């Protein structure tokens, strides 16, 4: 079995845990890249194993199956988005600037982690409980940012629609910039223009 040796049994436990964690991350990175590039159905555990130079059995020591692996990849992506939005809420008090910063945070994540971004939004029939739990929490943070921006007089329907507008806008920019960055304006300029336009448009309604 890959990675196993007689000396491994005598390694200090922290070192073994670090090695195990590093391999798990390596598997997830490779899976995210392949899922994003080729689609979920076209990727096998064998193909992922070949990408990282291990046997498929090594992957099964960390993940139950391909569906579990994708679920963990998506959980990782949304967990990072959640942490970034928490920092935005903690560091920015002005509702307008917080809304725009939240959109920039989402787009920046996609640009820095394009494979995880694309993999996180793969649609398939199997349940994805890990992803759905953290995605719901992340969406709730986004909704809170929008609600604070609109103010106390906004109805639930207005908050929901505005949240969807924000999500559509940030996903649109993220998708286009990750797919073909040369086609569009300089990213920082485009992101600033879109966030400003969305904020102005929502405030005008």
Tell me about this structure.
With about 200 residues, the chain is an all-alpha fold. It has a domain at about 65-205: Tetracycline Repressor, domain 2, CATH 1.10.357. The chain is about 75% helix and about 0% strand. It is built from nine helices and no strands. It has helices at about 15-40, 45-50, 55-60, 65-90, 95-110, 115-120, 130-150, 155-180, 185-205. Helix 1 packs across helix 4, helix 1 (about 15-40) crosses helix 6 (about 115-120) and helix 4 (about 65-90) packs antiparallel against helix 5. The chain is elongated, with a radius of gyration of 20 Å. Residues about 1-10 have low confidence and may be disordered.
Summarize the entry for a quick read.
The chain is mostly helical and 205 residues long. Helices cover 75% and strands 0% of the residues. It has a domain at 66-204: Tetracycline Repressor, domain 2.
In terms of topology, how is this protein built?
Elements lengths: L12 H26 L6 H8 L3 H5 L5 H26 L3 H18 L1 H7 L8 H22 L5 H24 L7 H18 L1
Helix pairs in contact: 1-2, 1-4, 1-6, 4-5, 4-6, 4-7, 5-6, 5-7, 5-8, 5-9, 7-8, 8-9
The number of E-state strands comes to 0
Distance between the termini: 62 Å
Rough shape? Answer: elongated
CATH hierarchy: architecture of the domain at 66-204: Orthogonal Bundle
Brief descriptors of the model:
single chain; 205 residues; mainly alpha; Tetracycline Repressor, domain 2; 9 helices; disordered N terminus
């Amino acid at each position: 079995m890959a990675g196993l040796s007689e000396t491994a049994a005598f390694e200090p436990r922290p070192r073994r845990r670090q090695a195990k964690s590093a391999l798990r991350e390596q598997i997830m990175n490779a899976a995210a890249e392949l899922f994003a590039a080729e689609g979920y159905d076209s990727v096998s555990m064998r193909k992922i194993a070949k990408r990282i130079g291990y046997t498929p059995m090594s992957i099964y020591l960390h993940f139950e199956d391909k569906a579990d692996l994708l679920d963990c990849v998506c959980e990782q992506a949304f967990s990072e988005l959640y942490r970034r939005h928490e920092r935005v809420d903690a560091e920015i008090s002005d509702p307008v600037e917080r809304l725009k910063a939240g959109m920039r945070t989402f787009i920046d994540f996609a640009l820095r982690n394009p494979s995880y971004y694309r993999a996180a939004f793969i649609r398939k029939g199997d349940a994805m409980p890990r992803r759905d739990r953290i995605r719901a929490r992340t969406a709730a943070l986004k909704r809170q940012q929008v609600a604070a921006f609109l103010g106390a007089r906004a109805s639930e329907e207005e908050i929901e629609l505005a949240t969807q507008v924000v999500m559509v806008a940030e996903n649109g920019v993220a998708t286009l910039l990750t797919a073909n960055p040369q086609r569009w304006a300089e990213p920082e300029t485009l992101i600033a223009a879109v966030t400003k336009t969305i904020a102005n448009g929502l405030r005008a309604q």
